Amino acid sequence: MDISLLKTFLEVAATGSFVNAADRLFVTQSAVSLRIGRLEDTLGKPLFTRSRAGAELTAAGREFERYALSMIRIWEEARQQVAIPEGFTRSLTIGAQYSLWPRLGFRWLDRLEEAAPDLNIRTELGMPDRLMRFLIEGVMHVGLMYMPQLRPGLEAQKVMDEELVLVSSVRGTTMDTIEPLYVFVDWGSEFISAHALALPNLTNTGLSFGLGAMVAEYIKNREAAAFLPARYVKTYLDSGELYLVPEAPRFPYPIWAVWREDLDAELRQLAQSELVATAKAADVESHAVVDRLRDLNDGEDIEVLGENTQLDT
């Protein structure tokens, strides 16, 4: 069985669209149609009902889906096991969004290498949809992300609350002077809603980013400001490259670990315990930044973005 056919089938099933599947797989829509056609010819049954609204699994398609997942998982297990270098006995593949590698993911790797010298570790980078696909297919065993979408065979556990804080590259920036400096970072639907209610004057900046914490590199080299993870920007604050904005709200943003449920229990326990220890250290750094912001506010509590803002009725 051609593994690319199975992956294409699962992508169409997940997105409900040949077009969206083609975009995610970086192939043409005709290539997706040909692959699904080959599968249907081999199985002798239609797997999808096509319509203008998209593609919906038939009864045969729903039945085949669980077998497709099993076949891909077995293939990935075999591929990873064969690829384990000499001197190692186990393998673990970890994925994370860009913002979660520095000061969290990398430190987790350090702890794992020290705790399990026989463990071969592979890493992946991507946005949540890519990471979720890798988890479903068995390419990854665990992923760190902000907005997971659970699927059968996966389990999500909260790692910690990220604290998004407002920082600027211009010393002395206040909420009264921030507007011309501000760039918007898209941290998801909840952040967008809270931001629109609490900071309506900053909703039309003309410049928006979907790059997460990577935006820190942008603003530190320009006169700019943005909401960024406290854990991530601490080094920039310590070095004087970025500055906290007094009286700015914060936004708690949960980090999740999504695990494959079929991961070896002993390896899962090891990886999970080291992640908990890593998160505790990162949480201390995050709280240190929040405490510094509280000091700037003369000890006053820091408002949570959108928490005390209500729509006019």
General description of the model:
The protein has helices at residues 3-15, 18-25, 29-43, 59-82, 101-115, 128-137, 189-198, 215-220, 230-239, 265-296, and strands spanning 48-51, 54-57, 90-96, 119-125, 142-145, 154-168, 184-185, 208-209, 225-229, 243-244, 251-260. The longest helix has 32 residues, at 265-296. The mean pLDDT is 91. Helix 1 (3-15) packs across helix 2 (18-25), helix 5 (101-115) runs antiparallel to helix 10 (265-296) and helix 9 crosses helix 10. The protein contains 10 helices and 11 strands. The strands form 3 sheets. Strands 3, 4, 5, 6, 9, 10 and 11 form a 7-stranded mixed beta sheet that branches. The chain has 2 domains: 3-81, Arc Repressor Mutant, subunit A; 89-313, D-Maltodextrin-Binding Protein, domain 2, CATH 3.40.190.290.
